[in-house]
C-alpha cells in the first residue's frame, strides 16, 4: 500500500527554475570577473580569462544582456514567493539569532526567509539599474551618443551598483554554503522534509497539507474504481 | 631640451597603475608648453594641415555647413580644429575669435585618472600626456574623464585618439608640427617657464592695447595645462567656443575612480573573509535529530488517521 512508504523529500525547485537560476549564476559570475578589471587594476589579470583586455571589454555587455534576459524570467517566477510579509520583519529583527544559529527562537518562515527575499529585491533593483547605466556607457554602441554628464553619472552608478550586487552575491553564495542542504536544493531541486521543517516550517506545513490532499484524492479515486464493477 | 629622447624612464605617470612610475630622472628634463595666442591667430588652418601631414591623418572630406569650422569637430583623424566665434564686444564691435582646439595636456589629466587599462595613457616628465594605443581597449573612459571633451574613439579600430603634442618630434628636439607651420607666431613652443613668461608679455601688450581683461588661460583646476592660451577676454573663456571657465576632473569621475576603487575592492575581499570567519565561529546551519523525529511523528499521525478513515469507510458500507 502506498500509505506505508512516504517520500522523505519535498520538491523545492523545478528543473526549469534550477536551469534558470544556474544560467543567471554563471553569467553573473562571468560579469563579475569581466567587470572587476575595469573597476580596479588589481583585478586586471582577470582579463586573461576572456581572451585579453579588449575582448573582455567587448564581451562584458553581451554577457550582461544574456544575464538580464535570464534574470527577468527568474524574477517573474520568484515574484510571488518573494513578497515581504509581516513575519519577515520579525525574522529580520532577530538577525542575531539567525547568525548565531539559534534557530529555535526564530519566527515561522515560509518558502523563502526574509534574507532570501532581500537578495531578490536588491538584485532586482541592482540589475535594472545596471542594465540602464551599462547601456548608457556601452562602447561603441551607445557611449558616445550620451551627453557627458549622463555618461559620468552612469559610469559612477554602474560601479557602485555592481559593488552592491557583488556584496549581495557574496552573502548569497555564503548562505548556500552555510545553510547545509540549500546548495543541494538548487542543484537537485529537492530537500528532506526535516530540512524543510527546520528552515521553512510554514512551507513544510503547506507542502504536507498538499500531500495529504493529494493522497486523499487518489484514495477516493481508488474507492470509486472498486465500486464501479 | 636636453635629455628628451624616447626613454621609458621618462614616463612619470601611467594609467591604472598603483605603484609609482620612475621618478628619478628629473634632473635635466624641463616641462614643455605650447602657447596659443588667440589674438594673433588669423584662422589660416595651416596648423590643421601640418598636424594631418605630420601625423599621417586623412579625415574624410566633409560637407560645408556654412561655417568656417572645417572639419566641424575633433575626430580620431582630426586632432585639432580651429573654432570660429563671432563675438560682439562691449563697444558693440565685432570680434572674430578663433581658437585652436586640441588636447590641453593637463598636469592632472582626467583621461589618465579614468583609464582602466594599465599604461594605455602615460604622462612624460616633460608634461606631455600620450595615448599608448597598444594598450588601449576602447572603453571610452578617457572621454568620460576629460574635462575638455578631447579624446575620440575610432570606429575602425575601437581605439582612442587625440593630439600627442607631437611627442615624437619633441623627443627629438623639434617643435610640434602646428607650431612650425604657424605663419603669425600665434603658436609658440618652449619650456614651461619661457612660455608662461612670454604669455605674460603678450598679455601686457594686449592690456596696453585696450584689452583690459586679457589674460593667460592655464586652469588651476587641473593643476595647469601644458597647452596654454592668451585670451583677449580671459574673464569670459566660454565665449571661445565654450572653453570651460574652471575645468576640473568631474566629482563624479573622482567619486568613481578615487578612493572608491581601493575601498570597495577591499570591502569585497573582507565580505568573503567575514563569511569564512562566520563559518569558523558559528558553524553551519543544520537541521537536527529533533526535526527528523518530528517529521516521523507527523507522518505516523497522518498514517493512523488515514487508516482509521479507511476502516470507517469499510464499516459504513453494507
TrEMBL record, chain A:
The chain crosses the membrane at residues 21-39, 59-79, 118-138, 158-179. Residues 210-229 are annotated as: Disordered. It is found in: Cell membrane. It is a multi-pass membrane protein. Keywords: Cell membrane, Electron transport, Heme, Iron, Membrane, Metal-binding, Transmembrane, Transmembrane helix, Transport. It comes from the Bacteria. Gene3D superfamilies: Transmembrane di-heme cytochromes, Chain C. Residues 212-221 have a biased composition (Basic residues). Belongs to the formate dehydrogenase gamma subunit family. NCBIfam families: formate-DH-gamm. This is Formate dehydrogenase subunit gamma. The lineage of its organism: Bacteria, Pseudomonadati, Pseudomonadota, Gammaproteobacteria, Oceanospirillales.
From TrEMBL, chain B:
SUPFAM superfamilies: 4Fe-4S ferredoxins. Residues 284-318 are annotated as: Disordered. Transmembrane segments: none annotated. Keywords: 4Fe-4S, Cell membrane, Electron transport, Iron, Iron-sulfur, Membrane, Metal-binding, Repeat, Transmembrane, Transport. It is found in: Cell membrane. Residues 32-60, 94-126, 127-156 form the 4Fe-4S ferredoxin-type domain. Residues 293-318 have a biased composition (Basic and acidic residues). Gene3D superfamilies: 3.30.70.20, Single helix bin. The beta chain is an electron transfer unit containing 4 cysteine clusters involved in the formation of iron-sulfur centers. This is Formate dehydrogenase iron-sulfur subunit. It comes from Billgrantia zhangzhouensis. The gene is fdxH.
Amino acid at each position: 500500500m502506498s500509505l506505508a512508504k512516504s517520500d522523505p523529500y519535498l520538491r523545492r525547485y523545478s528543473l526549469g527554475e534550477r536551469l534558470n537560476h544556474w544560467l543567471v549564476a554563471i553569467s553573473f559570475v562571468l560579469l563579475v570577473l569581466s567587470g572587476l578589471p575595469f573597476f580596479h587594476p588589481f583585478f586586471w589579470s582577470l582579463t586573461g580569462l576572456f581572451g585579453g583586455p579588449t575582448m573582455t571589454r567587448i564581451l562584458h555587455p553581451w554577457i550582461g544582456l544574456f544575464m538580464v534576459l535570464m534574470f527577468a524570467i527568474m524574477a517573474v517566477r520568484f515574484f510571488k514567493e518573494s513578497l515581504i510579509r509581516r513575519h519577515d520583519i520579525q525574522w529580520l529583527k532577530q538577525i542575531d539569532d539567525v547568525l548565531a544559529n539559534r534557530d529555535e527562537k526564530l519566527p515561522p518562515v515560509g518558502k523563502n526567509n526574509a534574507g532570501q527575499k532581500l537578495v531578490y529585491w536588491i538584485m532586482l533593483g541592482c540589475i535594472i539599474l545596471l542594465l540602464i547605466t551599462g547601456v548608457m556607457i556601452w562602447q561603441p554602441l551607445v557611449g558616445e551618443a550620451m551627453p557627458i554628464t549622463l555618461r559620468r553619472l552612469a559610469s559612477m552608478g554602474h560601479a557602485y551598483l555592481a559593488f552592491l550586487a557583488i556584496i549581495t552575491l557574496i552573502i548569497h553564495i555564503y548562505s548556500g554554503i552555510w545553510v547545509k542542504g540549500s546548495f543541494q536544493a538548487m542543484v537537485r531541486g529537492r530537500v528532506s522534509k526535516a530540512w524543510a521543517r527546520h528552515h521553512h516550517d510554514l512551507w513544510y506545513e503547506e507542502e504536507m497539507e498538499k500531500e495529504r490532499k493529494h493522497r486523499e484524492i487518489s484514495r477516493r479515486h481508488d474507492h470509486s474504481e472498486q465500486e464501479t464493477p | 631640451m636636453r635629455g628628451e629622447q624616447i626613454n621609458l624612464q621618462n614616463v612619470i605617470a601611467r594609467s591604472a597603475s598603483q605603484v609609482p612610475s620612475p621618478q628619478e630622472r628629473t634632473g635635466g628634463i624641463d616641462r614643455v608648453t605650447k602657447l596659443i595666442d588667440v589674438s594673433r591667430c588669423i584662422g589660416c588652418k595651416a596648423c590643421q594641415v601640418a598636424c594631418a601631414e605630420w601625423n599621417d591623418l586623412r579625415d574624410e572630406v566633409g560637407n560645408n555647413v556654412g561655417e568656417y569650422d572645417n572639419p566641424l569637430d575633433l575626430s580620431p583623424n582630426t586632432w585639432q580644429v580651429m573654432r570660429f566665434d563671432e563675438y560682439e564686444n562691449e563697444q558693440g564691435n565685432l570680434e572674430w575669435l578663433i581658437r585652436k582646439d586640441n588636447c590641453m595636456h593637463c598636469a592632472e589629466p582626467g583621461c589618465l585618472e579614468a583609464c582602466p587599462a594599465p599604461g594605455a595613457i602615460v604622462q612624460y616628465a616633460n608634461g606631455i600626456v600620450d595615448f599608448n594605443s597598444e594598450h588601449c581597449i576602447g572603453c571610452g573612459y578617457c572621454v568620460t574623464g576629460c574635462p575638455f571633451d578631447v579624446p575620440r574613439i575610432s570606429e575602425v579600430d575601437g581605439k582612442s585618439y587625440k593630439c600627442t603634442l607631437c611627442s615624437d618630434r619633441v623627443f627629438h628636439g623639434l617643435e610640434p608640427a602646428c607650431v612650425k607651420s604657424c605663419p603669425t607666431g600665434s603658436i609658440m613652443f618652449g619650456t614651461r617657464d619661457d612660455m608662461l613668461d612670454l604669455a605674460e608679455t603678450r598679455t601686457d601688450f594686449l592690456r596696453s592695447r585696450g584689452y583690459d581683461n586679457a589674460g593667460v588661460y592655464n586652469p588651476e583646476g587641473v593643476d595647469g595645462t601644458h597647452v596654454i592660451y592668451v585670451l583677449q577676454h580671459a574673464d569670459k573663456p566660454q565665449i571661445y567656443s565654450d572653453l570651460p571657465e574652471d575645468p576640473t576632473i568631474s566629482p563624479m569621475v573622482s567619486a568613481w575612480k578615487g578612493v572608491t576603487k581601493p575601498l570597495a575592492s577591499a570591502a569585497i575581499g573582507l565580505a568573503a573573509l567575514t563569511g569564512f570567519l562566520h563559518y569558523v565561529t558559528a558553524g553551519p546551519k543544520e537541521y537536527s535529530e529533533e526535526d527528523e523525529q518530528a517529521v516521523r511523528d507527523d507522518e505516523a499521525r497522518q498514517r493512523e488517521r488515514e487508516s482509521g478513515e479507511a476502516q470507517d469507510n469499510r464499516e459504513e458500507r453494507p
